[in-house]
Inverse folding.
């Protein structure tokens, strides 16, 4: 693998670098370079009005990109960054329309994967202000949780100057919790590993549950979807793929795609299992949904979208 300094230079030169984060792999570009960012949209086939998360090395860079940062957000940043959490603020003039999708807000995240952090550090050392990175999949598809998955998903669309960094399997496996910080109290826009009770405990505030509409593509009805049809909580039949906790047996003739021992493993293996079903050209994937805790709810949020076609 190339050095992370070389990868950072590559970003600074306007090329794309896909990199591992603890949630899922991101497809990165220099967030200050309109041409570089436009490549993300082309490679992903993503609608141009969908905003991108800007990844930064530390919360010291918050005020580069955001204005009106409330006290509770600083507390969240202190408690959960680096980590699987994205905060939404009113944007500073640095956040151009090609990042925000023309909205007046900006999403920011400090990831904790060591390769992501080192890349951000090298990029900062070159004068880079932030790395814009959506998940490294084609629009509406399953997010990649390994370098191999990024290659399979995007190789045919990347150009020879673009890079894919390999940091192993993503530890969390589902995308970051997105928290709207533009109101007097936090509001969760996309559930994830940083749960509502963690947010409440950190900020001491009751969460908002509604408010003005913000565009989050993960909120489109169909998203995170493999080619195979995803069916929830039915009995799998011969030829079906099956994802369920390992306490559930595999009926005869059913192809077991994942048998996680707990919800952490469920989140970790879900996307690779969905991808595997497509590689095996299965037509149906049956998933027995996890239940009982907040991570299960975040997993079910993704499953609902993966299953609505
Ligand atoms: O875990 C993650 O968040 C991964 C890794 C790579 O960091 N990134 C990710 O990015 O999932 P993406 O683009 O696939 O999903 C980010 C979501 C999108 O639904 C987008 O609409 C929303 O965040 N978003 C980004 N900026 C926003 C903003 N300013 N206001 C509202 N939503 C925003
Ligand atoms: Mg995505």
């Amino acid at each position: 693998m190339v050095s992370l300094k070389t990868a950072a230079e590559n970003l600074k030169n306007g090329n794309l670098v896909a990199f591992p984060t603890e949630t899922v792999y991101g497809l990165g570009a220099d967030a200050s370079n309109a041409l570089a960012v436009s490549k993300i949209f082309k490679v992903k086939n993503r609608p141009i009005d969908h905003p991108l998360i800007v990844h930064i090395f530390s919360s010291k860079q918050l005020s580069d990109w955001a204005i009106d940062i409330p006290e509770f957000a600083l507390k969240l940043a202190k408690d959960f960054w680096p980590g699987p959490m994205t905060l939404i603020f009113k944007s500073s003039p640095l956040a151009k329309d090609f990042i925000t999708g023309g909205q007046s807000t900006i999403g920011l995240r400090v990831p904790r994967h060591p390769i992501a952090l080192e890349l951000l550090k090298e990029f900062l050392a070159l004068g880079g202000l932030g790395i814009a990175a959506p998940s490294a999949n084609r629009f509406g598809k399953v997010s990649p949780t390994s370098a191999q998955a990024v290659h399979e998903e995007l190789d045919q669309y990347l150009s020879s100057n673009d890079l894919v960094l390999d940091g192993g399997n993503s530890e969390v496996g589902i995308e970051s919790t997105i928290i709207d910080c533009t109101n007097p109290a936090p509001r969760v826009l996309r559930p994830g590993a940083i749960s509502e009770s963690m947010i409440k405990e950190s900020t001491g505030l009751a969460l908002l549950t509604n408010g003005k509409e913000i565009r989050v593509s993960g909120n489109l009805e169909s998203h995170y979807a493999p080619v195979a049809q995803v069916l929830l909580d039915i009995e799998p039949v011969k030829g079906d793929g099956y994802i369920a906790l390992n306490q559930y047996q595999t009926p005869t003739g059913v192809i077991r795609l994942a048998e996680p021992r707990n919800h952490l493993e469920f989140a970790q293996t879900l996307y690779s299992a969905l991808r595997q079903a497509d590689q095996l050209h299965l037509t149906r994937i049956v998933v027995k949904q996890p239940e009982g805790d907040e991570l299960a709810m975040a997993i079910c949020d993704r499953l609902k979208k993966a299953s609505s076609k």
